[in-house]
Amino acid sequence: MKKSKETIVICITDAHIGKETSTFNLSTARSRVKNFGKTISRVSELMSAGCVFDKAVVLFLGDINDGTQIYKTQPHHQAETDVNTQAVVAAEVLFLPLLEQFQELFGKVEVHGVAGNHGLSSRFAHEASNWDLVFYHYLRMLTKKNKDININVYPDFIHVVPVRNHGILMYHGHEIRSFQQIPWYGVTQRALRWTAAKRLPDWDVMTMGHFHTFGLQEINKFSILMNGTMVTDDEWSLQTIGYESSNKWWVWGVSAKRPITWSFGVDLIS
After folding, report:
1. How far, CA to CA in Å, does 172 sit from each of 33, 107, 163?
2. Rounded to whole angstroms, what are the CA distances from 264 to 91, 137, 172, 253?
3. How far apart, in whole angstroms, are the C-alpha atoms of residue 27 and residue 62?
């Protein structure tokens, strides 16, 4: 059987490094990132029977840091309040080893990052003044001598990444409003409008996070992949949306013919 030539796409969002709940802190975050890496290794082994991967494309969709002063009582729900420390720990301790593991598995790693709302340095600062972007720049500095890991940082709130001639739209999701606490109506309406936006290149798959909810929606000829969060026992999700947070991240394959050939929701909890 001839193997399909594909690119593996790995979606990471809402890690909220610095946040603390009854079952989530910096230690459990590290454990969950390691568990995610182990599962990607198993996915690679499983799919290698029918696929040859040319590289891994890693999409960081924001809220990697928990940030500061996002809401009034935030410091009471944090293990680490210093945003610079959040970004350094996320880059050096958590995600640099993960990217190096992906390089060993897939040869080349192409990273793309957009900002979320928890990275904002101030309500009055420019949107590009965001600690998610600082985290991406830290990763770029840490990998600057590694020619097989390429870090791309985008100050705009939205970006379309080409993967094997298919457009993958990246957006955190924080300006989409829910209807009766259900985000999907607002998400689908925004996606339908963006398919006609002249500013954006053509795209086939929309990726987003923010709502700490995991799911897939297919409309006409495009797909929406909503990514979950690393945080467990998340009061924001339960109080605001009414759902417990979903602790899964999307991983899927892209071929020359199809923007999604296969997909897995990888559970972050060991």
Report:
1. 20, 28, 19
2. 25, 29, 20, 9
3. 20
- 24 forms beta bridges with 21
Q: Supply angle C-alpha 70, 136, 164, rounded to 5.
A: 120
Q: How large is the angle between the packed helices 96-106 and 26-47, nearest 10 degrees?
A: 10
Rg (CA), the chain: 18
Cβ atoms < 10 Å from Cβ of 189: 13
Q: What is the pLDDT of residues 9-62, one digit of tens each?
A: 999 999 999 999 999 999 999 999 999 999 999 999 999 999 999 999 999 999
Minimal CA–CA distance to 12: which of 229, 195, 202, 205?
229
Q: Is 220 helix (H, G, I), strand (E, B) or coil?
A: coil
CATH of domain 4-267: 3.60.21.10
Other beta carbons within 10 Å of 132: 27
In 10 A of CB 233, how many CB atoms? 12
DSSP state for residue 154 in the 8-state scheme? -
Per-residue DSSP letter, 2: P
pTM (2 d.p.): 0.95
Query: Are the beta carbons of 65 and 12 closer than 8 angstroms?
Result: no
- φ, ψ of residue 207 in degrees (nearest 5): -115, 140
